[in-house]
Amino acid sequence: MATNRTFTMIKPDAVQNGHMGNIINDILKAGFSIRAMKYTKLSTDQAKEFYAVHAERPFYGELVEYMTSGTIVAAILEKENAVQSFRDLIGSTDPAEAAEGTIRKNYAESKAKNAVHGSDSDENAAIEGAFHFSPEEIH
Ligand code: UDP
Ligand code: MG
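Above: inputs. Below: predicted complex with uridine-5'-diphosphate.
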């Protein structure tokens, strides 16, 4: 995957709270184009693998439970400097600390239920995109 791409998930809280359309609209308005998108649900094994880097953290069990609690939207997004630009758009992990106008500030419930995922590096964007999409599903 090219380094002008990032990977996102609209998380279960945001889908359940009816924010899916507004979040996709914010992403498009910010100049990202969608290269792949899927309305889906993570299995426990998938969530454990996706967040394996956090396996030793105290919130890991709750994170896996939360991420499998409902449907998500997974997507590959493209824009110049996509990873950093998308992290700027979503804001800090904890919505209480997120800047005004960011997606997490506007739509997240809490630090755990924080509305969206955004890859933290080009390398992880490629790994995470490939975790959810086959090459034929990326356009
Ligand atoms: N998380 C949590 N409690 C914490 C930190 C993180 O429940 O104290 C959850 C939250 O959903 C977060 C995810 O674990 O988005 C991954 O954490 P990370 O530190 O990678 O934050 P992010 O990169 O998503 O901002
Ligand atoms: Mg992270």
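The chain has one domain: 5-137.
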